[in-house]
Design brief:
8-stranded antiparallel β-barrel, globular, single chain, Lipocalin, 1 helix, mainly beta, 8 strands
């Protein structure tokens, strides 16, 4: 009976989310060269919030953010000229890096970002 209770307790413990709270500097190769973006993540349980900043698009709020274990997803909305574009990010924490992918609405290409935590 004791073993059964211990086993049940182990399965009741949810997988803890990686704590990526803080500022992360990311780079990606785009059609016109290297792009840079800063992510400021806030984690509360499995909820991911914050903001992101780029020189091309300015500041955007992180919405619909989730983090489960080492996997994360969120959306941002960019303003380009007078149009808004929603970008869906998916990523994975790998050691001291976060590898993110986002499908670009301009041309339908996938952009791969590598983020490293700022000191």
């Amino acid at each position: 009976m004791k073993r059964l209770l211990v086993l049940m307790a182990l399965f009741a413990i949810p997988a803890s989310a990686a704590d990526i709270t803080g500022t992360w500097k990311a780079t990606a190769e785009g059609p016109n060269g290297t792009m840079e973006r800063t992510f400021v993540f806030k984690v509360d349980g499995n909820k991911l919030t914050g903001e992101t900043i780029s020189s091309m698009f300015g500041k955007s709020v992180i919405a619909d953010g989730k983090i489960e274990g080492d996997t994360l997803s969120f959306t941002i909305t960019l303003k380009f000229q007078d149009n808004e574009m929603k970008l869906n990010y998916k990523g994975k924490v790998e050691g001291q890096e976060i590898k993110l992918t986002v499908e670009s609405p301009m041309g339908g290409q996938t952009i791969n970002w590598v983020a490293k935590k700022s000191e």
